[in-house]
Amino acid sequence: MEIGVWILTGALVLLTGLLLVKIRLLHAAAKEMEEAFLDRLRTDTNTLINTSSYDPYMRRLAAGINTGLRMLRRERHRYQQGDLELKDAVTNISHDLRTPLTAICGYLDLLKKEQMSGTARYYLTIMEERTEVLKQLTEELFCYSVTMSSGDMGEPEELSLNRVLEESLSAYYAVLKGCRIEPKVSMPDADVRRRLNRSALLRILANILSNAVKYSDGDLAVTLLDTGELIFQNRASALTEVEVNRLFDRYYTVETTQKSTGLGLAISRLLTERMGGSISCGLEQGILTIRIRFSACPDSMQKEPCL
């Protein structure tokens, strides 16, 4: 009787040990497939997932994941091709529009020198205004397509965020004043220095100030912190939280805006992230806030943002 109990106990212990080994092997195979799957998602490769496990269920799981990876790869390539074709189309269209627009502007300048009635001159003024808006939209489209196509932004340089911000505000002062917006600026006395691309930073700030002109209720507060964070705030009663959450989306325009392609803030986000920074926006109690952060690091032009 005791011998039978010992045999049964030994068999149970052996079976338990085998089960524990089996579970360990399944865990190792699952971990192996998890790491391989994440690697395939991060890289554009045709390599599929292999598993060292001989368990039929794990091998069936690996085969199912590989089927999904093939489908995902096809969709990714289709998206990339479509996105590339769209960029090329936008570049070509915006470029083709520049030539006739330049000719139209030239003839409008010549027409201004001719004798005409007050009504005709009024109509000419409207034509000039509409043509100028069309030029701005075309330039915005062209700039976005070029920015998307070119990954090389040039060498960074050490900049004073204080000075660049002052330069941007000075360039936009007449526009802001024309909209009866008197910006309130706050910045530290000491220079806040970062290694950035100057032209890219100026475009980012110009797009954000242009956004303030479109949506501000007549105020604008600009703050530069010694941490390298730029904060733009203004009352924006015409915007909703849903609209604010989409301000960085490509081609998205708020209905109240009739002079925009919806690319300005999309360009700002793209350039900011390429320089290792971050940009965000939010709406709280009717106040629109846009934050840009450039952390101090040896080289802000690296691909990964500085933390």
| Approximate strand percentage | 5-15%
Structural class: alpha+beta
Kindly state the percentage of residues in helix. 55-70%
Instruction: Give the overall shape, derived from the CA principal axes.
Output: elongated
Biggest sheet, open or closed, and with what strands and sense?
5 strands, mixed
Q: Ends: how far apart? A: 70 Å
- Quote the average pLDDT: 81
Tally the helices: what do you get? 7
| Element-by-element helix/strand order | HHHEHEEHEEHHEE
Q: Describe the strand arrangement of the main beta sheet, using strand numbers.
A: 2-4-5-7-6
Radius of gyration: 30 Å
Low-pLDDT runs of 5+ residues are 298-307
Q: What structural keywords apply?
A:
alpha+beta; 7 strands; 59% helix; 12% strand
Structural account:
With 307 residues, the protein is an alpha+beta fold. Helix 2 (56-112) runs antiparallel to helix 3 (118-149) and helix 5 (198-215) runs antiparallel to helix 7. The protein has a five-stranded mixed beta sheet. It has a two-stranded antiparallel sheet with strand order 1-3. The chain has helices spanning 2-42, 56-112, 118-149, 161-178, 198-215, 241-244, 264-274; strands at residues 157-160, 184-186, 193-196, 221-224, 229-235, 278-284, 287-293. It is elongated. It is 59% helix and 12% strand. It contains seven helices and seven strands; from the N terminus they run H-H-H-E-H-E-E-H-E-E-H-H-E-E.
State the gist of this model:
The chain has 307 residues and is of the alpha+beta class. It has helices at residues 2-42, 56-112, 118-149, 161-178, 198-215, 241-244, 264-274; strands at 157-160, 184-186, 193-196, 221-224, 229-235, 278-284, 287-293.
